Amino acid sequence: MPSTYEARLATGNLPRFPIIIRDGWLSSELIGSQEQLSEYTTELSAADIPYEILSLTQSYGASGLLTERQREFITEAVERGYYDSPRGCTLVELAERFGVSQSAASGVLHRGEGQIIKEFIS
Fold this sequence. Notes:
Elements: H1 3-10, E1 20-22, E2 25-27, H2 34-46, H3 68-80, H4 91-98, H5 102-121
């Protein structure tokens, strides 16, 4: 696994595909907050990994899109493969991870997914 990818995971930045590796450079899109980008570049610098930012785009309102709880659940769900086909984990496993009922986990995910879908469509 490329060290830039490890740094991305260490700072909570989910990978966006495609990830292109060409001539020793990893090229991909990163979507996250200013804080996440800062943590990522700090991690790269600390590991003495050269990087180049080609473009920055700011989106207004996205930071308030999800509650912290929704963001935690959805991030965990993505990392564990809940949205993969076939699924890498079940709703029950996610609920157990957060110490809540299956119904509560479903509600948190559903509300967060709804917000993401509505933002995407708009």
